[in-house]
Specification:
By secondary structure, this protein is of the alpha/beta class. The chain has 2 domains: 182 residues, 3-Layer(aba) Sandwich (Rossmann fold); 122 residues, Rossmann fold (3-Layer(aba) Sandwich). The chain contains 8 helices and 15 strands. A 7-stranded parallel sheet has the order 5-9-4-1-2-3-10, with helices on both faces. β2, α2 and β3 form a beta-alpha-beta unit. The protein binds flavin-adenine dinucleotide. The site of flavin-adenine dinucleotide (FAD) has 27 residues, from α6, α7, β14 and α8.
């Protein structure tokens, strides 16, 4: 084992590198600068289309395609053992996974098979005095806990999705990755294969899983609300509402966002005609980016967003809708 060598396990939904994958590459590249070691990525599916260019832009030096891994996706214990074998063959000292359903299931299996230390929900890492210092969430997300890793045995790390930034750091040097294949051994007990992965429909996906949400507040009237519904359909975006809008009976309870409704964590939340009460903001504060539009410059939402626009929905929604119709050809 080379304690400074990092292996990032990248799931490729539909063969493509998604936001989580890009964030993990970015995290791995940054970590390797601290450890001053090598790093590489292992994909759980054959890359489709042009994802290699994206791996290159994140400076990924090596990619190992774990051929046949998709056949084991529903038997994570078997898959985890195979990935541990691969990590051992590659001499990886650190195995990196996202803290999502798959990553958090695989991580303990890989750690147990390798006899490795396991650190889950690591939000940041730094090197001090030759020792890796990790910060992780504990007790829910209320407490940050600092741990150190001396490198005497392998380490398996999961990173929460909210800590994965796909932003390319200026210091990242694009690299042409060396691609190799590693055949996952046929294992007794593999019961089925994944034939197809169907991405979630933003119109029906549970809001807690939604990537982009446009939400309507009381500042919407029936006309602007109908425009917003069409905008969401055209742009494939999930629709949310505040409690007063739910109370009007315009949508089901599952669309309501906030303390009584859904707690959401999209990468983009657009608040339209929403004042920003604590009952609503409490349910959106972990969104990656919040943009709000309100006609009142003193609306409290402006203190709780990344970007705010003072504007009348009656003016801007028809314009946004027109642009969306033009760019999508008006159909979805
Ligand atoms: C126990 C409890 C639990 C609650 N749980 C929830 C919850 O889960 N979710 C939730 O949302 N609320 C919840 N509420 C209600 C919450 O307190 C607020 O009343 C609610 O969030 C306000 O919704 P709003 O921002 O849509 O409406 P308002 O507060 O009425 O705000 C409307 C905003 O629209 C702006 N506006 C008006 N016209 C326009 C226009 N033409 N263009 C642009 N902007 C315009 C106004 O300036 C205003 O800021 C709860 C309340 C209680 C007591």
């Amino acid at each position: 084992m080379n304690s400074r060598s990092i292996l990032a396990i990248i799931d490729l939904p539909s063969g493509e590198l998604d936001e989580t994958g890009r964030g993990l590459l970015s995290f791995a590249g940054r970590l390797s600068r601290f450890t001053e070691g090598t790093w590489g990525a292992t994909t759980l599916a054959e890359p489709a289309g042009e994802p290699l260019g994206q791996f290159a832009s994140y400076g990924t030096p090596e990619i190992t395609v774990a051929a046949g891994a998709d056949a084991l996706l529903d038997t994570p214990v078997l898959l985890g053992r195979c990935l541990a074998e691969l990590a051992k063959e590659r001499g990886a000292g650190i195995v990196l996974l996202p803290h999502n359903g798959l990553g958090s299931t695989l991580a303990p299996v890989i750690a147990a098979t390798l006899g490795a230390a396991l650190q889950t929900e690591v939000t940041s890492a730094r090197m001090a005095d030759g020792t890796l210092h990790l910060t992780r969430s504990a007790l829910g997300v209320r407490v940050a806990e600092a741990r150190t890793w001396a490198g005497d045995r392998p380490l398996v790390i999961t990173v929460p999705l909210r800590s994965l930034s796909q932003v390319l750091l200026p210091s990242v040097q694009p690299a042409t990755p060396a691609v190799s294949r590693w055949q996952v051994p046929t294992v007794d007990g593999a019961t089925s294969r994944v034939m197809e992965r169907i991405p979630p429909d933003p119109q029906t996906v549970d809001l807690t899983e939604a990537e982009v949400i446009f939400s309507a507040g009381k500042g919407c009237d029936s006309r602007t609300y109908a425009q917003l519904q069409e905008l969401c359909r055209l742009l494939n975006v999930s629709l949310g509402v505040t409690r007063p809008v739910y109370d009007l009976g315009w949508c089901g309870f599952e669309r309501m966002v906030g303390q009584t409704g859904r707690t959401v964590t999209p990468r983009f939340y657009l608040a339209l005609g929403i004042s920003g009460s604590m009952h609503h903001v409490g349910g959106i504060k972990d969104s990656r980016r919040i943009v709000s539009v309100n006609s009142d410059p003193k609306a409290p939402i402006f203190a709780n967003c990344d970007e705010g626009f003072v504007a009348d929905l009656g003016e801007i929604l028809p314009r946004l809708l027109e642009r969306a119709r033009q760019s999508t050809g008006g159909v979805q």
